[in-house]
Amino acid sequence: MNNKYYHITIALAGACQSAQLIPQLANTGTCSTSLYQQTIKTIFMMSPNTTADVYGGVDHIQTGLQALLQVLSSKQKEHIEIIRYLFGSLGVTSKLLKNSDALTKIDQRLTRISGIYADKMDDDTIATHLDDLSYSLAGIYSDIISPLSSKIKVMGKIEYLQNSLVQAKVRTTLLGCVRSAILWYQVGGSRLQLLFARKSIYRAAQNLLHEINNGVN
């Protein structure tokens, strides 16, 4: 399977995977460490050869694919927040992609950050410097992306939303959403597809999960 919706679905699942971490952080102060580290790794994946390479293979977005299936098939209350953060990220990314100066600044900041760690943004480096990376990446979102559009309002418990590290992780996760949204637009994604091509995206997500479960990756 390698049609248009294959690539669109991978990118959309990546965005969903990051988006679902936001309510976790906002309501509990914590989130899945492995998925959060995966989001950071994705942000630094600047020159991938394929769509799946952005995530290190489709098996690393299994949770995102499952979330995408839920978002596409359900109107249950628990998915509303993920949908809101997902659409908010797609909206701000559409403005970002029209601003070459902002894109250049993001690239420069990411290059500078990775240079601090000898350009080695592997699992061990991310795990060891997780908090520092969170603050650095949050700065990119706050300084460059946030001013481009109306702010994405994050809902949650005040005691967590006022915590500086939680704030940094939320902004880092939003930056991860934007990274996947950029990829989504690059491979031909459009918001109209979420209305008129839901079945095609749903089938592609099911097929990708089938690939993962059968070790075809």
Can you walk through the features of this model?
With 217 residues, this protein is mainly alpha-helical. The longest helix is centred in the last third of the chain and has 23 residues. The protein is globular and about 40 Å long. The model has no long low-confidence stretch (mean pLDDT 93).
Which terms summarize this structure?
217 residues; globular; 12 helices; single chain; mainly alpha
Would you summarize the structure shown here?
The chain is mainly α. About 70% of the residues lie in helices and about 0% in strands. Helix 1 (about 5-20) runs antiparallel to helix 10 (about 165-185), helix 3 (about 35-45) crosses helix 10 (about 165-185) and helix 4 runs antiparallel to helix 12 (about 200-215).
Topology:
Blueprint: H1 4-19, H2 21-28, H3 33-43, H4 62-73, H5 80-96, H6 100-116, H7 123-128, H8 130-145, H9 158-161, H10 164-186, H11 193-196, H12 198-213
